[in-house]
Design goal:
The chain contains 10 helices and 14 strands. By secondary structure, it is α/β, with parallel strands linked by helices. Helix 1 packs across helix 5 and helix 8 runs parallel beside helix 9.
């Protein structure tokens, strides 16, 4: 096996961790708590089922998960009411660390949830999954409970593409294959071994997660991988095959904005770690072209490049969880 392929030795199928009684026993041996969080924005169609499945199977039938929370960005539909009805702890992102301000975006919800949750292991699952199953949680916490050297676990799966003709067997992950995998192949070939580097389902140890900055927008997943790679090494990461994920597919225009935000995060990291010798100042807006009859007009969309600092740097976080100041002299 090539040195670049070490991640493949920590690539497993979720069935390896399907013995829930064994996982619960290992969790008790480790003496850890597990928190599950769903970042949401207008997810009333799917959030109820997701909470019901996880609460029934992983809290009531098996005591694997200790808390389930929904971190909401200001949904205009019934997301929060449905989540409360099915037993989740519901928090609005803007109400967490209010003195730190609020930015709308998935990365913001994840960052805020790290302060709000109590678990030693934190699992994040997207709230738009139509084929939800307990494997979306036990498959991700399994490696963390099995191997203390692993600190961060990503999901991967087949992602059918919905079209007028129905579901195509594959075709999801377009931004990964067109943008992210080529970038990783050039700059970080070890990370190119992630099957789905942008997957929205992953789990990590608090002591690792609290050391990471969080991009508030589209780049949060890529930012995590690059930061963990530089700070902890490829050996701290693993990936698990969850078979299939059915969810909403975004249109090409939305994917273009997503790619812009991801590329901006990549460039920020490349500059931070000295992986590119020189990068000029970048523009801050995504350019799209709109047709008005026979003419074209430019539409600019500002994609937030805001980044939240590592949670360990916040005095209120250190006070809550009893963490030392990383900047204090030894």
């Amino acid at each position: 096996m090539s040195a670049h392929d070490s991640l493949l030795a920590r690539t497993w199928h979720h069935s390896r961790f399907a013995d829930l009684d064994a996982l619960v026993a290992r969790k008790r041996e480790r003496g850890v708590k597990i928190s599950l969080a769903f970042p949401t924005l207008n997810e009333e169609a799917t959030i109820g089922k997701e909470i019901l499945v996880m609460r029934t199977e992983l809290m009531e039938r098996r005591a694997l998960v200790d808390e389930i929370a929904v971190i909401d960005s200001g949904s205009k539909d019934g997301t929060r009411k449905i989540a409360e009805r099915y037993g989740a702890r519901v928090l609005e992102s803007r109400s967490i660390l209010p003195k730190r301000g609020f930015h709308k975006g998935k990365g913001e919800n994840l960052w805020k949830s790290l302060y709000a949750l109590e678990g030693d292991l934190v699992v994040w699952v997207d709230a738009d999954i139509e084929n939800i199953s307990p494997k979306f949680v036990y498959g991700l916490v399994g490696p963390l409970l099995e191997d203390p050297k692993i600190g961060y676990v990503k999901a991967f799966y087949e992602r059918p593409l919905r079209s007028e003709a129905g579901l195509q067997a594959s075709g999801g992950g377009r931004v990964t294959e067109i943008l992210v995998r080529p970038l990783f192949s050039l700059f970080y070939p070890e990370l190119a071994r992630f099957v789905q580097p942008l997957s929205g389902e992953y789990a990590g140890r608090r002591e690792l997660l609290e050391c990471l900055p969080f991009s508030v927008g589209y780049g949060v997943e890529l930012g995590h991988l690059v930061d963990i790679y530089h700070r902890f090494g490829i050996g701290a990461m693993a990936q698990v095959d969850l078979d299939l994920r059915i969810h909403r597919n975004q249109g090409v225009e939305a994917l273009g904005r997503m790619a812009f935000g991801i590329l901006e995060t990549f460039m920020t990291r490349a500059r931070r770690y000295g992986d590119v010798e020189a990068l000029r100042e970048l523009e801050r807006a995504h350019v799209a072209l709109r047709t008005d009859g026979e003419r074209h007009r430019v539409e600019l969309t500002g994609i937030p490049s805001i980044e939240r600092p590592p949670m360990i740097e916040l005095p209120e976080y250190r006070a809550k969880f009893g963490r030392p100041d990383p900047g204090a002299p030894l």
